[in-house]
Amino acid sequence: MKIFTAAVCLGCIWIGTNLSSAGDWLMWRGPNGNGIADPDQDPPMKLDKPKWSVDMQGRSHGSIVVKGDQIFFNSALVNEKVQDAEVTGQYTVCLDRNTGEVIWASELFSDGLDQKLNKKATWASTTPALDDQHIYVNFLNGTTVSTTALDYEGHLVWQTDLCEYKVHQGYGSSPTFYKDLVIVAADNKLGGVICGMDRKTGDHIWIDERAKEPNYPSPTVVNIGGKDQVIMTGTGKVTSYNPETGAKYWETDGSTTECVTTAVTDGKHIFTSGGYPKNHVSAILADGSGKVAWQLPNRVYVPSMFVKDGCLFAVMDAGVAVCWDCATGEEKWKARLGGNFSASPVAVDDRVYAINESGTMYVYLADPEKFQLLAESKVADEAYATPTICGGQIFLRVAFYEGETRKEKIVCYE
């Protein structure tokens, strides 16, 4: 039985594009994992008619990744009717970038979606990561988190268990890279881990056991003071690891217990945010001293932040855009957008693209001096996945309702 098929609604299609690597989006939060898109592009600001729109089975709050003329994402079906059968499974799916047509869908797991999730979570809330050979995917299945490598035809290369996992809210930590390693993490009440795996084999090269507390960030690789570091936040700590060996460079207090956002840096500070048991945005000196440069009680729990021109930009969960001075935490401006937000904002040159949970996309200036709204477009009834913006195109995973029936779509604008 063919699970994934695409009913494609086409606008004006440009066939046969030959995009360079600057037109790719290879992992969670973009080219450098920090929410900053390639500035040498001009994606649309007003989103009216999409280039193509594809009905998609399953449910996912993970983002889309892009390489060449193909796009990839994860999806999960839980007792979903397909043809005349009920289907449960977790999949990685590949579409044609130019048309939205399904190229392949690889089933990684066919059951095990039994733990109770938060209503905003899904069984496919992670984003794949791409290199030249493989597609790397994290899934929670049953009570185990594992990482899988697929080739570009959707065939299994390897699959390695990371740890046992007890759901508190859900699981959404995505892979990142360092040299020959794929780095993955899974914090939870049974005991978290962060691990560097060999990209070719899936072997554990290093692993560090973490606190027995729920926590949700993706690890991120940064270079500060000429030193490459993997940063993890949450469980009350901000931790810097040697990405080759897993040894801790430093660890300090400075975050709350439960974080979701991926940390960012200006080269001097590590910026963290969290939402339980307290709301906070913190700037931790990145020299290992443990000093908290500044801290604010704002709730930036789910949407990750980004740094640009000496300022920290964020969208609070409650729909307020804000800009702070990186050095001091001084508020430069704030402005209400509207609705609630789970998706993270994306910076493209001097613009910010931010989509709320009700499917309204806001585009505003990435200006430290003032807030200026450039465009507002209602594109869907529901949106939790962070936009992917590359090669002048915007890729969205959104949902629409027809009465009580919810249907997800993959949409491309250009």
CATH architecture: 7 Propeller
Shape call: globular
Q: Count of DSSP helices?
A: 0
Q: What's the overall average pLDDT, rounded? A: 94
Class, according to the CATH hierarchy? Answer: Mainly Beta
- Could you say how many structural domains there are in total? 1
Across the major sheet, the strand order is 1-2-33-32-31
Strand content: over 45%
| CATH fold label | Methylamine Dehydrogenase, Chain H
How many angstroms does the end-to-end distance come to? 34 Å
Spans of at least 5 consecutive residues with low confidence: 9-20
Task: State the total count of DSSP E strands.
Answer: 33
List keywords for this structure.
mainly beta, single chain, 5-stranded antiparallel sheet, Methylamine Dehydrogenase, Chain H, 33 strands, 414 residues, 4-stranded antiparallel sheet
List the helices and strands and how they pair.
Blueprint: E1 8-10, E2 52-56, E3 65-67, E4 70-82, E5 85-96, E6 102-109, E7 129-130, E8 135-141, E9 144-150, E10 156-164, E11 176-178, E12 181-186, E13 193-198, E14 204-209, E15 220-224, E16 227-234, E17 237-241, E18 248-253, E19 264-265, E20 269-274, E21 280-285, E22 292-296, E23 306-308, E24 311-315, E25 320-325, E26 331-336, E27 346-348, E28 351-355, E29 360-365, E30 373-378, E31 388-390, E32 393-402, E33 405-413
Antiparallel strand pairs: 1-2, 2-33, 3-4, 4-5, 5-6, 7-8, 8-9, 9-10, 11-12, 12-13, 13-14, 15-16, 16-17, 17-18, 19-20, 20-21, 21-22, 23-24, 24-25, 25-26, 27-28, 28-29, 29-30, 31-32, 32-33
